[in-house]
């Protein structure tokens, strides 16, 4: 078992990381209570969802660390949750602008710059798209499709895994893992692209609502949860991360990824508490609108 296979430093590390996860959960619960009391009901659930991303990923990583056989389920749970959070973040930006009608009124003659990351940051020749109800619908669909298709693909992966056809680290063209991973990757890029297009347009208007640090935290979660974990798993698959009996290379890579995520998500949870804890009644759209012309001149 895991507990008998650990030496004293290993047990101390596991205990410390578990404590960090518990503190992250407590910080989130305290923040959720604050949000529930202080923030208008129209924004309340969205902001709680976004704040929950880091503690949920920390919790799933902690469970995966203690119960190695659950890694596939914990990774998939974190992935599904964050797919929903990406859609919620786009909706939060629209809500912070006063809702869809107010956003369309503010940017009546404005245009979206679609030559932005992660899909089209190098395609500067792309035309700028008018801000209409239809373009807003396509942006929302860009994140909503990820929140729908990611759970469906995860369910398909688990069905194939229980049948012995899906091997997580087997990335050969003949296996389903490579194709499912590529499809999820493409859906992720489209969802992040939609959020990037919206953020680029509203970042000056919502500067008074700390949208830039909020977006930075959201981007950190994306990079750490997806890119960092993928790189570590690839290094482990190629045996670059050496095995350390009784752990194989892939198991050791999974442990490293989970332990890093617990520490990183703990920090992000604490920072999120500072960034999101604002007196929202002082930051309603009229005040932001008053600041907008000055920002544009700058």
UniProtKB/TrEMBL annotation:
SMART domains: Solute_trans_a
Superkingdom of the organism of origin: Eukaryota
Organism: Oriolus oriolus (Eurasian golden oriole)
Keywords: Membrane, Transmembrane, Transmembrane helix
UniProt cross-references to InterPro entries, sorted A to Z: Ostalpha/TMEM184C
Main subcellular location: membrane
UniProt KW Nucleotide-binding keyword: no
Membrane topology: Multi-pass membrane protein
Membrane-crossing segments per the record: 12-34, 46-67, 73-94, 137-161, 176-195
Protein name: OSTA protein
Record's subcellular location: Membrane
Signal peptide (from-to): none
